Amino acid sequence: MRERDEPEVVGRRVQRLRAQRGLTQRQLAEPAYTPAYISTLEAGRVRASDEALRHIADRLGVSFEELAVGRPAHLATGLRLRLTEAQRILADGRAEEAAVQYGLVRAEAAAHGLVREQADALLGLGECALETGALSEARDCFERAEEHLAGQALPVRVPAVRGRAVAHYLAGELRYAVYLLESTLDELNRGGLHDPDALLLLYASVIGPYMDMGAHARAAQAAEFALALAPRAGDPALIARMHRSVARTLLAEGRVAEADASLAKAAELYAQLRLHTELANCHWMRGYVCAQNGELERAETELRQAHTMLARTRAALYRSQAAVELADVLHRRGRSAEAAELLEGVLGDFSSERGAVHAAAAHRLLGIIAEDARDTEAAEEHYVRALSLLERAGAAGDLADLCRLLGDLLRRTGRTEAALDAYRTGLGHRTAPGTTTLGPAPAQPPLWPAPPAPDRYPL
User: Fold this and answer.
1) Confidence of residue 433 (pLDDT cuts 50, 70, 90)
2) Is 51 exposed, middle or buried (0-12, 13-18, 19+ CB in 10 A)?
3) Is the model's pTM score more than 0.90?
């Protein structure tokens, strides 16, 4: 049985629409039904069959859905059109404006009991909150979206899980973010749910937490998988705009199913545009690997590519994180002044609850640069700030190295006992790369295609 309002509600609706159109009960009933049947239906004493409601809806000139549940004709399709418009605005980097649109759609969908549209609006609100750094608000939106999608297949729920994990990661809760992403990957792959879009979203999103926890091998593998899966649309924005325009035309002509199909294509392309942030993180990861291998020129190229892509998306927090990695490479290439200027420009984007690990990395590098300039007081101040941030985030691998730097500085300035305390703290956090608090790697899809050669990866 279709979703249906109670008989008395449907009856009052039929009576109101009949009166508005100046029809008698006989005119509404004939030729298939009697005036007495219409009278009984309007009084709410009978539950009309689908066939009867379709007959009455046709005579009244309204849709079955509007008569049965009171929704305006094509409401759901109209809301999906507005959702794709909000996606476009967010893809342009106007998060605050997009949030207003998503909020209006969510309220209207809730008023008419449209669960999937509510969930999509909540996902959009969560992405807007991530973009603006409102992490608690983002988590709340993603959690509520998950609740609305509880009965859906896992690939449908992946954007909500991923959003929640990213919010936890940016708040410095690395272990929990990795747990969410890895357990979802594991469930997808072990269950044979090899949805490319869902896998791309998860693999791309887990790179940052892996890196910050010292799991470099896993991060490198996730980056290669993500880049191999990356969509290759020539210009997603133009194609999405075309589908949106087509959907409007089809909707005006009453061709709802075709309009829905065009809107689905537009929504998919706007989702691909939002992946620019994740793809930029993949370039950042590749730059990191190059830096570790001593290929500093290529590392700088990759990191500048990541920084440029993130600047286009106006993702301030991610852009600042990439800037820290780029500054490290610049310093290693002998351009310390340029590195310090870059770091000082982004420190204000971080806090202990927002990008703590990269804030610590910025202070660590500024401390090294200060030491090189023989400013030990400034160096110690930066190291201590970095230590506090890393302890809060639980980034064990970075803590060990930082304690060594601080201990060496304290020893050179004659504070032996304080230096020993710093070394002991570092030893307590020493761990092998790739094993920091992580269990077995998540299952991979069977017959996974080999990633293409690096020079074929999309930018």
Assistant:
1) very low
2) exposed
3) no
